[in-house]
Amino acid sequence: MTWATIATWQMAYGGVGKAAEILRKQGAAADALEELIKTVEADPAYTSVGYGGLPNDQGVVECDAAFMDGDTLAQGAVAGIRGVMHAVSVARALSRQHVNSFLVGEGASNFAREQGLSVPSMLTQQAESTWRERKDQVDRGLITPYDGHDTVGALTLSGSGSMAAATSTSGLFMKRPGRIGDSALSGSGYYVDSEVGGAAATGLGEDIMKGCLSYEIVRQMAEGASPQEACDRAVYPFIAKLRRRYGKAGACSLIALDNRGRWGVASNVEFTFCIASSDHAPQVMLANPAPRGSTLFEPVGDGRD
């Protein structure tokens, strides 16, 4: 039976390994996916996701996350949630509810506490030190505030054919309180349909959400495009359009996985991602945009370098 998983950035390597083990043992796509994202959220070394995430301009860590079941199309999402390490688990819990499935701010944080998912503090000493240092540099006009916005987004396919998608991020470093990017928004930051495939995004959310790119990739796969064809056709023309009509385009990277286990990636910046499947051990890959709207790939190691 074919199973597969793909996730954004090298930081997902450990989580991809855990997801692969669950899928290899015929575990559920949703369980494997949640474990993948939680692994990244719990590691304070990754300063754009979960515990140890870099805070907003008031020094508070606010996280966004989403979870989607490709079998039922059920979705759950949180935005601006505080005091929660595993925002993805809150999002998955919300996906089981027919209403109230997207909560923001205090409402999301209260729901997490009801589920026993809150923690005393999300701000590590290292993150606070970095925030104070950069805040001083911003105040003196030495750097711009919005530096760092790498989302962990991932997709899983189980041997039974079920699929799931999820994202988690602490968003732009030193963002305004309450700022929400694409990660929690269905169709922009993520989308999955087990009858077709799924996609997830990372980069500058304000620009990614202008194109609803995750849904567009799934739509193109539904019309017969391979994951790679769908990524290339959705991402690069949109980037060109955005530069022409909006004047600029921020970082924009998309991953895709179809229900046959094939994957695709497109990015307008140098971008690492992780893959694993029933016939491929966990691997970190590097993607770069290539001429004529295509993408170049190369392996960069096993994630332990």
Please characterize this protein's 3D structure.
With 305 residues, the protein is of the alpha+beta class. The protein has a single domain (4-301), classed as Glutamine Phosphoribosylpyrophosphate, subunit 1, domain 1, CATH 3.60.20. The chain is 30% helix and 28% strand. It has 8 helices and 13 strands. Strands 4-3-2-6-5-1-11-12-13 form a 9-stranded mixed beta sheet. Strands 7-8-9-10 form a 4-stranded antiparallel beta sheet. Helix 3 links the parallel strand 3 and strand 4. Helix 1 runs antiparallel to helix 2 and helix 7 (213-222) crosses helix 8 (227-245). The two termini are 31 Å apart. The relative contact order is 0.17. The mean pLDDT is 94.
Fill in the keyword field for this structure:
alpha+beta; Glutamine Phosphoribosylpyrophosphate, subunit 1, domain 1; 9-stranded mixed sheet; single chain; 4-stranded antiparallel sheet; globular; 8 helices; 305 residues
Short overview:
Keywords: Hydrolase. The record marks 150-151 as: Cleavage. This protein has 305 residues and is of the alpha+beta class.
Number of helices: 8
CATH architecture: 4-Layer Sandwich
Strand content: 25-35%
CATH top level?
A: Alpha Beta
Annotation, overall tally of beta strands: 13
Large-scale geometry: globular
The CATH topology is: Glutamine Phosphoribosylpyrophosphate, subunit 1, domain 1
How many domains, as an integer?
A: 1
Tell me the strand order in the biggest sheet.
4-3-2-6-5-1-11-12-13
Which residues sit in consecutive blocks of at least 5 with pLDDT less than 50? none
Q: What does the main sheet amount to? A: 9 strands, mixed
> Gap between N and C termini, in Å?
31 Å
Category by helix and strand content: alpha+beta
SSE topology string: EHHEEHEHHEEEEHHHEEEEE
Q: Look at the structure and name the CATH superfamily.
A: (Glycosyl)asparaginase
Helix content: 25-40%
Average pLDDT score: 94
Rg over C-alpha atoms, rounded to the nearest angstrom: 18 Å
